[in-house]
């Protein structure tokens, strides 16, 4: 049975949905109740269909893009103070990543995932800090000083959006080639990027801003701060009034220019590059899901790659997931399954995706190693 599947997978006439369905049928023939491994079976079918192999390999890389947001600057610097944390924290997180002591550093190490961090738009720090270039590096095409305050004008110019998408493509392609990666995990760093992601979803879908906003990076343990949420709603409403919501609806490049973030555009570029190479993506929480939604609006075939790692505490993620599902359905592509982990993760840095790596390894082992029911029934006692 695995020989027949192998022949289907390497057949150039078989498109992705046909290959995916063939793997699902094979998984149904294995020594387990049909569908009993739940979302693991979707992961297995998606990865095997993309790699065209009954023995899919798991060689991951985690690529974090970092950028600062004009809307997170202090009001004295022309910003809106949208976050519970000051903007300078973004740079400190990168310093921690560069020294191998930050959250993503620890989780990448213990899950055997090579990690790289690219600054595509951090604000200038008080002192010049030289990145090691072993973990953290600066992009050649960086948005200098971070994005602008999108309540007062465009976050980025058209050329900055293009250069961030291109930087994402280039850095992703380079890392994949260096490691011969077979799966990519994306992460982000950027104080204020939950506000930016909520603004992007509001702009692209036209949904009510109040149904979108959560606290973002929180200073309390339960992650809920009504005062911060109220402030975010008011900031995003102001942005929508300034830009006029209708020209941005279903117009990803316009929305990125008006209310986007450098790191979100770069992740979007990285996802598009992965799609070109048929490489699956383990999608982290809210911000990476937003970037994935934008990539799907640019190229609907991206939906075939997506493995959602974690349910965000941000309400806007569900809206983005619904948009992605609708795009997949309308293009006859198998709809990605719901996020795997629901553990109140809200750290960013790709940490949710890193924590879900054992699930990806397990899904590949299932398709490669689990016996068929016929093989088990034929065992000699």
Structure, described:
The protein is of the alpha/beta class and about 375 residues long. Helices cover about 45% and strands about 10% of the residues. The protein has 15 helices and six strands. The protein has a six-stranded parallel β-sheet, sandwiched between helices. The radius of gyration is 21 Å and the shape is globular. The model has no long low-confidence stretch (mean pLDDT about 95).
Short description:
With 381 residues, the chain is α/β, with parallel strands linked by helices. It contains 15 helices and six strands. 47% of the residues lie in helices and 8% in strands.
Distance between the termini: 23 Å
Whole-number mean pLDDT: 94
The proportion of residues in beta strands is 5-15%
How many helices? The count is 15
Q: Per the principal axes of the C-alpha atoms, what is the gross shape?
A: globular
Return the structural class: alpha/beta
Give the SSE string. Answer: HHHEHHEEHEHHHHEHEHHHH
Q: Give the % helix.
A: 40-55%
Strands across the major sheet, in which order?
3-2-1-4-5-6
How is this fold's topology laid out?
Blueprint: H1 2-10, H2 16-28, H3 39-51, E1 60-67, H4 89-98, H5 103-110, E2 115-121, E3 136-138, H6 158-179, E4 183-189, H7 193-205, H8 226-243, H9 252-259, H10 262-276, E5 281-283, H11 286-298, E6 306-308, H12 316-330, H13 351-355, H14 357-369, H15 373-377
Parallel strand pairs: 1-2, 1-4, 2-3, 4-5, 5-6
Descriptors for this entry?
single chain; 381 residues; alpha/beta; six-stranded parallel beta sheet; 15 helices; 6 strands
